[in-house]
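This part of the workshop introduces the protein records we will be handling. A record pairs a protein's sequence with a compact description of its fold. As an example, a complete record with its sequence and its structure tokens follows.

_____
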Amino acid sequence: MNKKVIDEIFLLRSIACLSIVFLHAFARSFLEENGIVNSINMLLTFGTPTFVFISEFILARSYPDKLPSNFWGKRMKYVLLPYLLFGTFYAGSKGLELTLSSDIGFASAFLQYWWKHLLLGDFHGYFILIILQFYILHYYFHSYLKKWNPKIVLPISFLISAVYLGFFNFVPAVQTPVGQYVWDKFYWIPFVGWVFYFTLAYYCGRYYAAFMKLLKDHSKAVVIAPIVIAGMSVFLFNQGIFAKISSKQIDILFFATSMIFLIYYIGMKTRRISTFFVVISQYSFGIYLFHPLFMAVIYIALSILSVSLHPLIETVIYSVISVGLSIIASYIVNKVPYGYYFSGKIGMGRKDESREKTTAPLPTVPQSATK
């Protein structure tokens, strides 16, 4: 893969990762309602859509025409297995906590969490289920997508995602336990709500040269759009129109897209991405999986010490320590034989760029798509 493309992905992935960490750190530190913090948290939700965008972008960019023979094998080992193992691990830790605080046996508590984690994605690793659906979509539809006109596919996919999310944003939940659960959490999982990011990432990755040119030709809009959309999203949030802090809101479709374009544009204009962002990008999968565990440990430590800190200081402590410990944990686990099946492989760094295979010449946008 082209070196410059890798540099831009370093920045995009690392900022998406850190936005999620900060989102969770704010949630732990600011326990009372705070309008400013809630507005910031709402904007930080762009991180998860960015993660799922990156997965398809890299796939379309790396394999514009034909998938490798080991396509499914690698994704089962390095994506599905970490999801299953980490889901089991978190089910065990939550089951133990429930057992210690109630009279429920550990086996019962563990199973209560385990099947929800693995089958329903009812923990923070749910985004992996979305990425796996993207792999399936790419496998079966990339031969069609490359023939279809992006100017038709993108608006249709946006409409599908917007209608789907709008239904769950505005239609009251069915008043049954199952209905309540679907409205609260499960509607996140089906690809329908994310299909716009899938098609956007596919065409940006496949027609990369045209994507780059589009960002350059509309640089002012790329810079201004996130500011304007962020202002509108904050207004709608504070007016109670979109009352949840969630990446599954219609307005986040606009905001996440604008942030993806802005960060990518900044990457294009940056001569060399900071080593800090490269390292965060390399360990982003492990950070995503590990950081809630270490935030829980930090919370216990602060509770035992009875330390009273300003919420902003707590946010910094949660963020810095959880990221640092997650990187260390990922590094150690990857040194254990087959440990990467648990935490995922450490991502490619700058030193690996020279070992990347050069891709075939990138396809250009079909003539029909430019009319």
Summary: Confidence is low (pLDDT under 50) at residues 1-5, 353-361, 367-371.
